[in-house]
């Protein structure tokens, strides 16, 4: 009898499911879960999105967080929310949460929510563009407050050289080339190089770099990834060096990269690991205080990309840079 009772105590209890289903048993909360499928939003942004007072939204988020449906992410003085990154497939509660996510994701967002999400992204993008417009002349100095260019550019270049030596790659896209410091590396390895940036000031600096370095196989384009998707462009390699923490929706970069890559192509990302140095927002124009490695892996998987080699570089000022690669399957269309 004792052994049977002991065995029963080891079995998962359905009691752990009650808070999850109670917290998710509300149409508004299900809508919140849907808009957080890939994005991370602050309390104020979610309040604006759903036309409700901040106190009311905070209550809903607190209940969902307590049930394990959401997790908070501090970005300076603001609290943002996202879906949990690490769900354990062996835990009953996490299985239930994953099933809830998979179920609500089958339902398309209503148009009015899509429009509000896009408005928030445009607001974030405008904030980033305004910063680079004001500080284009001090861009390198501002960035090197966090990490000197060579500290992440050289390891990234070495990884790309190693891959390019074994692949029949011809074309590469660099998202956000800034002053163009990485373009000489890409120009040497690829027949065709495209640099894409939404800042006219940064493109002007990149153009100057191309002229000075005689980079005749580089095309510089003003716009965002949607610009290239509309043109039907495709690339063997896509590079994003210290860009994700400046973009309104980092997860979308993975989706767009997957759509822009040829079969068997690769996305190489270098960016900051999650940190708490809030001054980077004001001094460097950062929208996000870095990312957990699991975030990048999750966004890549959602885009159908497979994580490959990874490298972590610790800096003396307390920052850590991650260099990651993500592959598109050769079977992918």
From TrEMBL:
InterPro entries: ArsR-like_HTH, HTH_ArsR_DNA-bd_dom, SAM-dependent_MTases_sf, WH-like_DNA-bd_sf, WH_DNA-bd_sf. SUPFAM superfamilies: S-adenosyl-L-methionine-dependent methyltransferases (SSF53335), Winged helix' DNA-binding domain (SSF46785). GO terms for molecular function: DNA-binding transcription factor activity. It holds the Pfam family Methyltransf_23. Residues 9-104 form the HTH arsR-type domain. PROSITE patterns: HTH_ARSR_2 (PS50987). This is Transcriptional regulator, ArsR family. It comes from Marinobacter nauticus (strain ATCC 700491 / DSM 11845 / VT8) (Marinobacter aquaeolei).
